[in-house]
Write a structure and sequence with these properties.
Layout (H helix, E strand, L loop, with lengths): L2 H27 L5 H20 L5 H11 L9 H21 L4 H23 L7 H35 L1 H35 L1
Length: 206
Amino acid sequence: MKRRDLLVILFCGGLWGLSEALLGGWMFSAKLNLAAPVVLAVIAFAILTVARIHVPLSGSSTAIATLAMLFKFLNSPFFACHLLAIFLLGAAFDLVFSLVRGRARPLAAAAATYLGFALFALTITYVFQYRYWSGARVLLYIGRLGSIAAACNVAMVPLSYWLGHELSNRALAKSALRRWALPVMSVATTAVLALAVIRGIQAAAG
């Protein structure tokens, strides 16, 4: 993996992580529990789509999701299930878009969204047997929230793909991204991740 690829992964992991920690934290504290998974999934797919343009490698989206999920340690109260949701959403995107290799993006976006929602709901309910999840909640999460998120991502992924290419084709934006945006955001992401990990260790020890 090239240094630039690593910087893009750090950059996009930071963007997704901040959306989860800041916007996601606010939405859950405001009791917007049904809207939050949809909004955050759409933001995540927009970021992952742009990242895929610059780092078209299998595993890159999962790496971005792994970084993003660590930002949830910054939230209080902390919910470990959110880590799993973020990771599986990124892994689902990675799997689907590695298979289609950019073809049929709207259908791939819907498939990846449903897969991410289904993997999380089934895993948290039947593998981890989390007491707050039941069969009815699984159906709500996949059937209702997953369908809304999939419909949004059918539009968002092609739009993000087009915007990402437009930005990458503009010399000024490309130069600015390479010279300061990627390095600065990467350093900031590393610093925030270090803080998040420390908080996670402290929470586990306490």
